[in-house]
Amino acid sequence: MSKDMIEIRWHGRGGQGAITAAKIVAKAAFDAGHRGVVMAPTFGTERRGAPVHTALKIAKTKINDICPIETPDVVIVLDDMILDEVDVAAGLKPGGTLILNTAKPKDSFDFKDVKLVTANVTDLAEKAGLKRGIVNTGIIGAFAKALPIVPLDKLLSEIETEFKGKNGKKNAEAARLTFEHTELE
Q1: How many CB atoms within 10 Å of residue 36?
Q2: Ordered DSSP codes for 30-52
Q3: What angle do CA 128, 131, 136 make, to 5 degrees?
Q4: Of 58, 102, 121, 151, which has the highest C-beta tally within 10 A?
Q5: pLDDT range class, residue 2, cuts 50, 70, 90
Q6: CA-to-CA dists, residue 117 to 89, 144, 162, 185, angstroms
């Protein structure tokens, strides 16, 4: 992973909040001193339940490259069932990090030359008091554990701000629980 800039691609389903999760991380990264933050959501014919993706670049200094991400350092997957529909690891740099919401054991997956990070975000978010299937804030906790480039407290604060009046504390708790239960390689 380049120390100058980290390129992150998020995969989820329409309605899961992948774009909102990336936006929260982008705001928290900027607040934490990363002066280069570029988020590029992808919109098209996406509909609720259809596979979607978004991109986020984070750097300590201004980012001049606003091109789409073709070779991400990190891929974040909000729904492991999307693996049957999308090659989420396409273009992932060798030795890159793949963060996956799954209840399955790590040995169920056969990703080559990838640092696989897993957490059962779905169950943990429900344990935090969110409705089943709300996973976008929980996956931010897995991101924080796998890549400590943005302090967890900044991410939790931004989650609470984003969802103020709409289960902000429960969403932050989902991220905190996921952070605690994320399995690193």
Answers
A1: 18
A2: HHTT--EEEEEE--SS--BTSEE
A3: 75
A4: 121
A5: very low
A6: 13, 11, 25, 6
Kindly give, in sequence order, each residue whose CB lies less than 8 Å from that of residue 30, ignoring residues fewer than 6 positions away.
37
Q: Which residues, in sequence order, are CB contacts of 14 under 8 Å at separation 6+?
A: 46, 47, 48, 49, 50, 51, 52
Residue type (1 letter), 65: D
Q: How confident is the model at residue 184 (pLDDT cuts 50, 70, 90)?
A: confident
Q: Residue 185 burial by CB count (10 A; 0-12/13-18/19+): exposed, middle or buried?
A: exposed
Domains of the chain, start order: 5-181 (3.40.920.10)
Residue carrying structure tokens 């991220």: 175
List phi, psi (to 5°) of 127: -60, -30
pLDDT tens per residue, range 70-111? 999 999 999 999 999 989 999 999 999 999 999 999 989 989
Q: How far is CA 89 from the centre of its chain?
A: 14
